[in-house]
Every structure is written in structure tokens, then in C-alpha cells.
Amino acid sequence: MIKKNRMILKVTSILLLVLAVLSITPLVTSLMTVAAVFGQLTASKESMEFTLYVLIIGLLGVVSLVLQFMASVKGLKASSGKDYPDNCKTYGTLLIILQIASMIINIVLGGFEMSQLIGNGFSLLLLILYTRSAAKLTY
């Protein structure tokens, strides 16, 4: 059972790393959008709301991205037996909370879109598998 949990932790850590690398481009694009909006900011309420929305999502994205990189490295170390999985449980829990917060903010501020729900649901499932396999892994 320990081998199975190590394998699941290793696979989910690799997937988290791949998803983190893939999310760098959209994150940079959204932060550049904020900069462009600030550069041409008018006094309209719509532009302020859009800027606030993109800024909140961008900040959540930066924090989530850094935690995701750290979690994937810790997960890879824990799956090979070089580190304890306790840090993985903590990172996984924090990332689950950030993912749920991001989902709620996207729905409230940006509206409901099925593609976002599917993507966020996949990420949430991956984080739950990561955290569960780290919790089951004992040394």
C-alpha cells in the first residue's frame, strides 16, 4: 500500500509541476492586462471592476503558482523517501483552499463557464489525490 501511495504522490506531483509550468503564460498575460488597464485607466466603473477582478485573480494565481511549485518538489522528494510527507499535506490543504476560493471568485465576478468549471474541477481532484496520498504515506 505504501508503494501505491508513493506512486500516486509522484504522479500527482509531476502533474502539478506540469500544470504550474503551463499556467505561467496565462498568469503573465493577466498581469500584463492589469498593467495595460492601469496605463489607460479611465474613471469608468466598469474598468475599475475589471481591473480589480484581474488583480485579485492574478494575485491568487501568483500565490497558488508558487505553492504549487513548492508542493510538487516536496511531493517528489517525499515519494522517493527523501522527505517526510507532512509538508505535502500542508501544501495540499493550502492549495485546495486557494483552488476553491479561485473557483468562487471566478463564478461570482466572472460568471459561470463550463470550461472553467471542468478545468478547476480537474485541478481540485488532482490536489485532493495529492493530499490524500501524502496523508496515507507514513514512514
Mean pLDDT: 82
Q: Approximately what portion of the residues adopt beta-strand conformation?
A: under 5%
The secondary-structure class comes to mainly alpha
Number of helices: 5
The total number of structural domains is 1
> What's the SSE pattern?
HHHHH
Distance between the termini: 12 Å
Strand segment count: 0
Please outline what is shown here:
By secondary structure, the protein is mostly helical. It has helices at residues 2-22, 24-39, 45-79, 86-110, 114-136.
Overview of the structural elements:
The chain has 139 residues and is mainly α. It contains five helices and no strands. Helix 1 runs antiparallel to helix 3, helix 1 runs antiparallel to helix 5 and helix 2 packs antiparallel against helix 3. The two termini are 12 Å apart.
Helix-strand blueprint:
Layout: H1 2-22, H2 24-39, H3 45-79, H4 86-110, H5 114-136
Structure keywords:
single chain; 139 residues; mainly alpha; 86% helix
